[in-house]
Amino acid sequence: MLNVISADNYLKVNILRNEMAKKAKRSYSEDITLTEYRDHTKAFNWFPGHMAKAMKQVGEKLKMVDIVLELRDARIPLLSGNEDLKKVLGNKCRLIVLNKVNLCDPEKLADWKKWFDDNGEHHIFINVLDRNAVKLITEKSREIVVANRIASGGSGEKTRKFRMMMVGLPNTGKSTLINSLGGRKAAKSGDKPGLTQSQQWIKLAGDIELLDTPGIMPRKIETREEGMWLCATHAIKDQILGQEEVACFVVEYLMKYFPKNLEEKYNIDKLATSSGEVLEQISLSRGFIKKKGVADFDRTFATVLSDFRKGELGLITFENIPML
């Protein structure tokens, strides 16, 4: 029999313990400061030194490329963009590539497609695992560059190699997209943010060359909810907040908006009233139990996050289109 009474207290103590440990391990190079979100909750606002360096390098290499592919997560279409990046790019041709449509709420996805159309941004919604969709990226990129050259009084004819630069949020699928574009394993890929550690030129099919860059995070996260969206979609490493806090957020979000998804996935007849107790229900359902009948929360946290990120807890789009 599980100790239901201790579930929420266990989570609170564990989150506090891990937060203290993370504070002690943080290095000065991460430029982490304690700030206050717009909703008045306290949180760590961070902009690691290597990301500032990456942003500077993007600006330095712009003259070497024809177009910049900005990869975003379609579940958070605006939050996964970067205002600093937009300033750095200036008038350089850009194509916003919104990945992971296979994990999105279909109705919200339709709203976002219309929003981008109405706002005149060059964009494309794709699933990078779909080879046919990936081919559309190079076709659309060439169209944008040719149209820009003609508009500037130049020729639309091909004159040299076609060079693209890939930028975007960590873990949005950059490496997977590169491998799909190249038809081979040209870059590391996996469900882990920060795999690309430096800029690298990659030869793709035909006359295409692509410059891959490390993931670039937003400098400022306005609310705790936005921060948790980034954690849940794995743009921010689990080590930053700890899996328990992110898993609690995911469970709370689903309890509020999609309770049936939790009940059906984990064979729960009726959800408890707190996230801690629901996590304990999941532990019981999955058989994640330690000695003396205590729930194995660490294993449960990892399972919930893995299931969510694979789309097994439903098709979720966190961000809504801006209201006028």
Automatic annotation (TrEMBL):
GO terms for cellular component: cytoplasm. Its main location: cytoplasm. It comes from Halobacteriovorax marinus (strain ATCC BAA-682 / DSM 15412 / SJ) (Bacteriovorax marinus). This is Ribosome biogenesis GTPase A. Residues 164-259 form the G domain. Required for a late step of 50S ribosomal subunit assembly. Has GTPase activity. InterPro entries: GTP-bd (IPR006073), GTP-bd_ortho_bundle_sf (IPR023179), GTP-bd_ribosome_bgen (IPR019991), GTPase_MTG1 (IPR016478), P-loop_NTPase (IPR027417). GO terms for biological process: translation. SUPFAM superfamilies: P-loop containing nucleoside triphosphate hydrolases. GO terms for molecular function: GTP binding; GTPase activity. It holds the Pfam family MMR_HSR1. Belongs to the TRAFAC class YlqF/YawG GTPase family. MTG1 subfamily. Keywords: Cytoplasm, GTP-binding, Nucleotide-binding. It is found in: Cytoplasm. The keyword GTP-binding applies.
